[in-house]
Write a structure and sequence with these properties.
Elements lengths: L65 H46 L5 E10 L3 H6 L7 E10 L4 E5 L4 E6 L2 E6 L4 E3 L3 E10 L7 H12 L3 E15 L2 E2 L3 E11 L8 E11 L2
Antiparallel strand pairs: 1-2, 2-7, 3-6, 3-8, 4-5, 4-8, 8-9, 8-10, 10-11
């Protein structure tokens, strides 16, 4: 009968912790888990730590966001092209302004333009009966024969006086008569005196204005205001400009309102409307 062989206890595997000697034999201790290599510091107060799984970190946008990405790219490209066009437009406007300034400077040096001068030479009045006007504030129909002197001192510039001009004479704020200037051409270095007849019909003055007018004539100092508006074209060599409106405002004082009226004082101010 074969002998029984009792196996000996196998030696412990390396790396496994052997049970330490203990008064309680036969009860092994649990192995102690290894500690972390480096302790992780706790997050600071007021901050958040967001952990994203590695399989959800995309290097390329997912397919459902591709359309949105292409839309944003198109908007960015469109915005860049608009900014480029705006820069080009501003640059062109700036170049045009510079060229216009240079052209204006050259024209000024070539033609040396000077402003024309206007004044009132004489005024003859008809149709104003101050005797009846003093007795009763009746309507008047005055007629003014006005001589206007226009002086063009330019050597290389002529002036075309066009139609649709207007001349008005006021006493205070009441228009006494109106009319127009004749259309004519005034050459360079020229002085022209032209006559214009201004008429008024059934002009009514208040009692205060009628008495003031009679009183002014008794003092041989009747203040009047003449307003002239004339569209003109300037001739520069062989070139004519667009229509420019000449505005002349004159404060004139005459000694009486008769055909033999004399101008006591006059002060004219003038300007232009380029457009």
């Amino acid at each position: 009968m074969a002998d029984r062989v009792h196996p000996r206890d196998s030696p412990p595997v390396s790396g496994e912790s052997q049970p330490s000697s203990s008064p309680e034999r036969g009860v092994p201790r649990k192995p102690t888990p290894p500690g972390p290599a480096k302790p992780v510091p706790p997050p600071q107060a007021g901050t958040y730590v967001i952990q994203i799984p590695k399989d959800q970190v995309y290097r390329v946008p997912p397919s459902e966001n591709a359309r949105r990405q292409s839309h944003y790219a198109r908007r960015k490209n469109r915005r860049g092209s608009c900014c480029c066009c705006l820069c080009w437009l501003i640059g062109l406007i700036f170049i045009l302004i510079v060229l216009l300034g240079i052209a204006a400077g050259v024209l000024y040096l070539v033609f040396r333009p000077k402003a024309p001068d206007y004044t009132i030479n004489s005024i003859a009045v008809k149709g104003v009966n101050l005797t009846s006007l003093a007795a009763s504030s009746s309507a008047i129909s005055p007629e003014f024969d006005v001589a206007v002197r226009a002086d063009n001192p330019n050597k290389k510039i002529g002036i075309y006086y066009e139609k649709d001009s207007s001349v008005e004479v006021y006493y205070k704020k009441v228009m006494l008569c109106n009319g127009a200037l004749p259309a004519f051409y005034q050459p360079s270095n020229n002085v022209t005196v032209f006559q214009t007849v201004l008429k008024g019909s059934n002009i009514e003055l208040t009692t205060t204005d009628a008495r003031a007018l009679v009183n002014a004539q008794s003092k041989r100092s009747v203040p009047l205001t003449l307003k002239l508006r004339a569209p003109v074209k300037i001739k520069l060599g062989s070139v004519k400009t667009w229509k420019i409106t000449v505005k002349v405002d004159c404060d004139v004082t005459v000694d009486n309102l008769t055909a033999n009226a004399k101008v006591v004082s006059k002060d004219c101010d003038y300007g232009v409307d380029l457009w």
